Amino acid sequence: MPIIGFNFDKFLVEKKKELEPPIKVDSGMKILDVKKQDLSVGGKKEPALRFNYEFSVKYDPQQAEVLIEGHLLFAESAKKVDEVFNGWKKDKKFDPEITQLVMNNVLMRCNIKTLLLTQEVGLPPHIRLPILKAGEPPKQKPKSPVSEYTG
């Protein structure tokens, strides 16, 4: 897998006032910048890209917000690194496969971190979590062949 590092650089969690309905929660993420970076691996330099990202959640109307900034490192062949970097410099885009890989990594890790941070300041979850309701038996999912394997 070409993602070799993931780091958080900044957390901001702010509850500006006690929450009042209606609460509208908006979240988003964006790539702020892409830079070339050489990594020293076994005494030789390997090409890599550093994707700087920002993830935000806003509890509107202006009641609370979460901001996470960080970066991830992407290692690939020198040709692929140059291709992605040049695409970014030209029009702030890169191929859909790389976009999906980077964005999914950022979304997964930042959504989990946001759940933990919002819990600390008493904010409701920003994403819908599964819940059981009284009187309803849980729906059974069909077992997947993998879960039935006993080795």
Roughly how much helix do the residues carry, as a percent range?
A: 25-40%
Q: Largest sheet, if any?
A: 4 strands, antiparallel
Total strand count, please?
Answer: 4
Low-pLDDT windows of residues:
none
Shape by Cα distribution = globular
Distance between the termini: 27 Å
Q: Could you name the CATH topology?
A: Bacterial Protein-export protein SecB
Strand proportion? 35-45%
**Average pLDDT, all residues:** 90
Number of helices: 3
**In the residues, how many domains can be counted?**
1
Order of helices and strands: EEEEHHH
CATH architecture: Roll
CATH level-1 class: Alpha Beta
Strand order, main sheet: write it out: 1-4-3-2
Radius of gyration: 20 Å
Structural class call reads alpha+beta
Written description of the protein model:
The structure is a single chain. The mean pLDDT is 90. The protein is of the alpha+beta class and 151 residues long. The radius of gyration is 20 Å and the shape is globular. It has a four-stranded antiparallel sheet with strand order 1-4-3-2. It has a single domain, classed as Roll (Bacterial Protein-export protein SecB), CATH 3.10.420. Strand 2 and strand 3 form a beta hairpin. It contains three helices and four strands, in the order E-E-E-E-H-H-H.
Short description:
The chain has 151 residues and is an alpha+beta fold. It has one domain (3-127): Bacterial Protein-export protein SecB (Roll), CATH 3.10.420. It is built from three helices and four strands, in the order ββββααα.
